[in-house]
Design a protein that fits this description.
Elements: H1 3-46, E1 50-59, E2 74-78, E3 81-83, E4 87-89, E5 95-102, H2 110-126, E6 132-138, E7 142-149, H3 170-177, E8 188-195, H4 206-213, E9 219-225, H5 239-246, E10 253-256, H6 262-274, E11 277-283, E12 291-298, E13 304-306, E14 310-312
Parallel strand pairs: 5-6, 5-8, 8-9, 9-10
Antiparallel strand pairs: 1-11, 1-13, 2-3, 2-12, 4-11, 6-7, 12-14
Helix pairs in contact: 2-6, 3-4
């Protein structure tokens, strides 16, 4: 090999080394760039702000539902501190609604017939096809008869084969029903409890039932049947105990005097669910699992806002 060939070979090797080096550097730079780009949304995700959504019912002093309000009509406070309302809707959004029916011995005869009819109509006619529902019943033992079902009209007739018997364990039934709300599909949620008797058979206490419901974020409504029929005081329905459960959730307890009035009471609940607002605000503090109080107020003091009274600041489900 002559000198010229040797020089050419050396230049070729140097060129290939340079090309390899440039290619290698470009590869490393591209990896760094990709890692940087991929890292941005990861950091954004970890630092994402949690939005707290609050369904709200507004009524006047006579209990009439108030519609037509705007975002600027509301004030929201978390642990006493004002929170800017970042989301607002006055449109009806889908709701996850569960029904919990007392089928204890006192519901024999016409009472269970009236209750079945009212609940069938509630599921089939008063809820929207885009909603979902579940049905549960209780005497001395609670049972989930049908899990979340959509459209809710498919639940009509689900109570047809239930025969009243046994005692009344309302608080145990609430314990059994509450986990259902962790598996719901919609932000708005409601639980309707129908009973004509005091709790006589629960292993759980009223305080325990109230505490577990705080984690469900559901509006709880109770229809308390206080009929004129002869009934021992110890077994008569206890509206005050039910109000301790429904009040903190944003719902309410309605006392009716006849079983035939159950239908009208469920109509009023459906009307309220159709008339709710949804507010949202950014929770800037870390989600540390603590309980944080919420208060929603309408600037027009002639109106009253009802909503849940707080939430546990846990990382939301994905």
């Amino acid at each position: 090999m002559n000198h010229e060939d040797s020089s050419t070979t050396k230049r070729t090797k140097v060129t290939k080394k340079n090309e390899f080096f440039v290619t290698f550097v470009a590869f490393v730079v591209s990896l760094i760039f990709v890692a940087f780009v991929v890292g941005i949304p990861a950091q954004t995700f970890r630092g994402a702000v949690t939005t707290v959504e609050i369904p709200v019912t507004v009524t006047d002093s006579a209990g009439r539902l108030i519609t037509g309000l705007t975002k600027g009509d509301f004030e929201v406070f978390e642990d006493g501190d004002p929170q800017p309302v970042t989301q607002f809707s006055d449109k009806r959004t889908p709701v996850s609604a569960g029904v919990l029916l007392d089928i204890s011995d006192s519901m024999r005869g016409q009472p269970i017939v009236d209750a079945r009819g009212a609940l069938d109509r509630f599921m089939a006619d008063l809820l929207d096809p885009g909603d979902e529902g579940f049905v549960a019943a209780f005497n001395h033992l609670p049972r989930i008869l049908a899990p979340w079902t959509a459209p809710p009209a498919r639940l009509a007739g689900r109570l047809a084969n239930e025969r009243p018997s046994g005692g009344t364990a309302i608080y145990d039934a609430l314990f059994a029903a509450t986990p259902m709300f962790q598996r719901r599909h919609f932000t708005r949620a409601a639980l309707i409890v129908i009973s004509d008797g005091a709790d006589t058979a629960s292993d759980h206490s009223l305080a325990q039932a109230r505490e577990t419901l705080r984690r469900s974020d559901a509006f709880v409504y109770a229809i308390a049947i206080d009929s004129t029929a002869d009934q021992r005081v110890s077994t008569k329905v206890n509206p005050e105990a039910l109000r301790e459960i429904t009040g903190p959730s944003g719902g309410y307890t309605e006392v009716v005097r006849t079983y035939a009035d159950i239908g009208l009471a469920t109509e009023r609940i459906a009307e309220e669910l159709n008339s709710q607002y949804t507010l949202g605000y950014a929770a800037l503090r870390p989600q540390d699992g603590s309980w944080r109080s919420i208060r929603v107020r309408v600037k027009n003091h002639d109106y009253m806002a009802r909503s849940r009274r707080g939430y546990f600041a846990t990382v939301p489900r994905t």
